Amino acid sequence: MKLFLHSGRDSTHEKVIEVMIKAVSAVLSDSALHRSVLHNYTSRDASSEYCGCLNGGWCQDGGQCDCAQFQALGDRCQIIPNHGQDRDGICRSWGQHHFETFDGMYYYFPGTCSYILAKDCHSAVPRFTVWVHNCRSCRGSVYSCPRSLSLFFANEEEIHIRGYQVLKGEQRLTLPQTVHNVFIERLADYILVKSTFGFSLAWDGSSGVYLKMTEEHKGRPCGLCGNYNDDGSDDLSSSYGINSEDVAEFGNSWMVELPHEPLCTAVEDDFPGPCSSESEMDDAIEKCSALLFFPFISCHDNIDPNPFVASCVSDLCVSYDEETFCRTLVEYTRACSHVGYPVREWRDSFPSCVDGCEDSFVHRDCISCCPPTCTFEKECLGTNLHCLDGCYCPDGMILQNGTCIAVSQCPCVYHGTAYPLGHVLEQGCTVCVCMGGVWNCTENNCTSECTVMGDTHVTTFDGRIYMHTGKCQYVLVKSRGNTKFTVTVQYSACGESQEDSCGHSVTLVVDEDVSRQVTLNREGKVIIGASMVVSLPYTDDVVAVRRLTSVFVGLRASFGLKLHYDWRGGRIYLQLDSTWKGGTLGLCGTLNGNLRDDFLSPAGMIEGTPQLHANAWKLSSACISPVNVPIIDPCEMNQQNAFYASLCDVLTGEVFAACHAYVSPGVYYQQCRYQACRCGSGCMCTALAHYAYICFKHHITVYFRAHVSECG
């Protein structure tokens, strides 16, 4: 049915139009009908001349623009408020020339230069700055022209994103990557940039950029995205502090002059609209009005379609083709997905809008920012978009090394090495078979071990390796059975010296009797109860404690627990015999051969990140711990320790080569670098000793100290 009639205003045509409106009313909600262009279109004078109004505006007598078509504002209809109730404070820009501010004001700005999209304007050193580089000579569809971003964070060099390549200075980054307190990753069709200070950015690899911030940033940004103060009326504030309705004046004020680039031409104040004639705009409106009906109507209350219909009209006036049309539909559905209201399977109604997914991937309208993996480990920051659109694995499949696999095909991980389905692993007296990401082990009477290395790295009984950075007292392991015991670890804050490990102490409490608790502290002392220091060896009816070496203290309990504590280097090796299988909780996990449930909380929930897991097991609510933040690479902060980090190369070389076939050095190399950069030679030597200990369990003895003089 053709919705727009090009005719005079005789009574016959008015009756036809009236019938059409009633027919549409029967299938549209009141809110959808209110948005419909039908009423506005039939009320205009079809003989009027097109005079350069923007965003679907019609030229009236005296050169005035009628902006009712898309509820636009301004003398040229240059601004359209997005009245959607779930915008979520997202600033977005797409297709080179379309912008919607944090506070929901859409405008069309045909700039061809580089601009400040958003910047922290209320800090002496801006915490963030985002430049958008538009194409200087875009011909044809705006979606086919190159666009790129430059990101600047406090005291960091430029991060440049073009396509899916990310450069820091001149160095190309392999993703995922952490740069100081910023985490960058590729997920589906997006590059995601997340920070620890409430800044989040998504880039679609071609033209779409989407910014979201926490409320602590309200009133602080400036640039083309506006000031994020919940007041759209002052969004067009120029770089020199003038609030203007002139889009060109506003946009030009945020232009960035790039070194080694010719001077870019500013947009003229009276720049022409993208539609060169009324008939051209008529055709585009008829095509773009699809956004006002099924299947998009389900999102109308959440995201107002008017700005997106207007942007669609502008794009089709420049390049009237199916690919451009489909991209305009994508932008609306994407906005809906970003706030958690995806328009599912909308492409079924538009078969020409192919998804372009390759291999085993399918198009998904709502991909979690933290999709499940075979290990179920997630790194998700609080400012994420609700969900993303793009090519990803079908439902029930998991992305593993770039390929979609069934959960039942997941490999099993042990000490950082992934083993395929069906692999048989013999470890001491235990024989385990990999089955769908879970080790299925024999019931032989042997021990399982949980390890802590330094104040960050934990390996659970079931072999899951993770990091957390809290400085609290945590439950390392707690019994579920009739025999009640708890082992806690107290992490201390690091001092100013970078030469030693941040210390911790270990405490065993049996039957909840704190008067008989045993604490091994960072000074090598053994304390019974609250304060009684005892000499070694020490024995009572439950525990026996003795000094094993110059740095190790050993504790053995009558109920099948053995603990070796390196008080100087911060290592803990905690063993339980097979009677405790499936009977533990805490940082050390569940001891059931299934590393997927190792992050089980006291409330019975499986936590999504190492930080959340650790926080669930801290003993004091007054202790502040990080939540949902990426762990920062200390090598970025302590460059004076780069030499010690370089000595970790011995792990991957000839000295440890005999062990590589049994235990992959990769994760231990990363641990070594982390510890070396954080606290120098002592921590580096401890990390090497830890890998040597793991190798020794596989009957491989490594004398690394003879090759690393700093550890001699």
Describe what this molecule looks like in 3D.
Pfam families: C8 (PF08742), OTOGL_N (PF25961), VWD (PF00094). It comes from Silurus meridionalis. Residues 89-265, 448-624 form the VWFD domain. This is VWFD domain-containing protein. Keywords: Disulfide bond, Glycoprotein, Repeat. The protein is an alpha+beta fold and 712 residues long. It has five domains: 11-77 and 273-349, no CATH class; 85-256, no CATH class; 362-408, Laminin (Ribbon), CATH 2.10.25; 447-616; 634-711. Helices cover 18% and strands 26% of the residues. It is built from twelve helices and 43 strands. Strands 3-6-5-4-17-16-15-14-13 form a nine-stranded antiparallel β-sheet, with helices on one face. Strands 7, 8, 9, 10, 11, 12, 18 and 19 form an eight-stranded antiparallel β-sheet that branches. A hairpin with a 2-residue loop joins strand 22 (397-400) and strand 23. Helix 6 runs antiparallel to helix 7 (322-338). The longest helix has 31 residues, at 666-696. It is elongated. Mean pLDDT is 85; it is low at 1-49 and 495-501.
List the helices and strands and how they pair.
Blueprint: H1 11-27, H2 30-35, H3 38-43, E1 58-59, E2 65-66, E3 79-81, E4 91-94, E5 98-100, E6 105-108, E7 114-120, E8 128-133, E9 148-153, E10 159-162, E11 165-168, E12 171-172, E13 177-179, E14 182-187, E15 190-195, E16 199-203, E17 209-213, E18 221-222, H4 247-253, E19 255-256, H5 278-288, H6 306-318, H7 322-338, E20 362-367, E21 388-392, E22 397-400, E23 403-406, E24 412-414, E25 417-419, E26 424-427, E27 430-435, E28 438-441, E29 448-453, E30 457-459, E31 465-467, E32 473-479, E33 485-491, E34 504-510, E35 518-520, E36 526-528, E37 532-534, E38 538-539, E39 543-547, E40 552-557, E41 561-566, E42 571-576, E43 584-585, H8 610-616, H9 634-637, H10 642-646, H11 657-660, H12 666-696
Antiparallel strand pairs: 1-2, 3-6, 4-5, 4-17, 5-6, 7-8, 7-18, 7-19, 8-9, 9-10, 10-11, 11-12, 13-14, 14-15, 15-16, 16-17, 20-21, 22-23, 24-25, 26-27, 27-28, 29-30, 29-42, 30-31, 32-33, 32-43, 33-34, 34-35, 35-36, 36-37, 38-39, 39-40, 40-41, 41-42
Helix pairs in contact: 5-6, 6-7
